[in-house]
Structure prediction request, 191 residues.
Amino acid sequence: MGIRTGVLLFASSFLLGAFFTHWSVDYKTLWTSKLLDSSVKSAHIYYHDLVRAPAWVSLILYGVSVLGLGSTLAKMVEMNQSTLLFDGASLFLQLTTLATYHFDIRNAFDLLPPLSAGSAASAALVGVLKELASAHTIIAVALTGVIGLQAGQFYADKVPPTVPQSTASSVPTSPVQPSTPNMPSSPRKRK
Prediction:
């Protein structure tokens, strides 16, 4: 594993862990069959506190994302089939993650009603909370895909290619003997 792959795995794992922390409230709002008022209230308080977090928290997430994108682009300098397949797909998933965070999550934070709104904003609040939970799920799946693609690339680069059995039997085992230059290519009868 090279340093560029290590940086990419670090960035993806860090971001996956950062977004996995939201699972405690996302599970109760998106994945349970019955949405309880206590779940909505705890998720509202959680995200309200997250919105009020210092700006450097969001900047760290953007910085680690840019670090991962930079290492992927640095890996793509070697243009071979493995790079195009694995790193190209990783780049797509990273851009999906960044776009989901920037356009879905940041916008949902702006739509989050204040804590004092109470039950009057309940329908709007549930919609925003479900949007946040689904965006976090998309990000988690994309980052897991990046890690899986890098593991697949590592495996594909380390395992020697094997020749299928049907092809191996048709390949000659001895090298072809070159014809001598003095011999005619077709025998002729002399009269």
Q: What stands out?
A: Residues 122-158 form the longest helix (37 residues). The mean pLDDT is 85. Residues 1-157 form one domain.
